[in-house]
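Structure ticket #2291
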Amino acid sequence: MSRLPSLYISHGSPMTALNPGLIGERLAALAARLPRPRAIVMASAHWLTHQPVVGGHAQPPTIHDFGGFPQALFDLQYPAPGDPALAQEIAQRLTAAGLPTATDPQRGLDHGAWVPLRFLYPQAEIPVVPLAIQPLLGPAHQFALGRALAPLREQGVLLIGSGSITHNLHDWRSYQDGKEAPYVRPFIEWVEQRLQADDSAALLDYRRQAPHAVQAHPSDEHLQPLHFAMGAAGGDALGAQRIDAGIDAGFLAMDIYRFDGADAQLLSAD
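Resolution: structure written out below.
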């Protein structure tokens, strides 16, 4: 079985589900290039807990965790099955790594999970296991979560962190006229440079080192899934490949990252 990469996806507004634009095209093209996974683990910025928790529902419901949007958005469903056995394995792996983990047999898929999955795997036939993140424990903790689960990539499991490479909702109405927030490009360029340099230490310390970090992320739950995906790369070499999906509403950068770890050199040589 081919080793899968880990992914970081910027999922954007819930309305991405109805108006996917460039991110929908990029996700569909990415899925077409990947070996078909047997299951997906999704660490979403919209499931936040104080300790690690993994979803063990056999048929996770679609969670519409938002308000004020058209009814057509609430009518959407993503009826992918769950994988309770994989959820138990994940809890065991994390606990063995010193990250005691609970399971939640009722947890469904929030929009950070099902919105991008609609474009990656629209048939909703691949089992999905949601995983909570713990923003109060910091980037290094999310990195450790990913590192503990990295061996699952060898078993056909696709590990995804879903957030947003920039996420300042205070700017929601400030850049609707086509202008672009001045902090967005310096921030995403710094992230790309540090990822290309395999500089995990700087990325874990991004709030101190990155330009405009606090403007890009007043709170950092939407970037910490990136640290999960970095950890899931499984080694010192991240093998990061950026997929540019544009900037929505002038302030939401929609970057996707694919992490192939040590396999990246082999891929680039093909």
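Closing remark: The beta strands are 6-10, 39-48, 53-55, 102-104, 128-133, 157-163, 240-243, 247-248, 252-253, 256-259.
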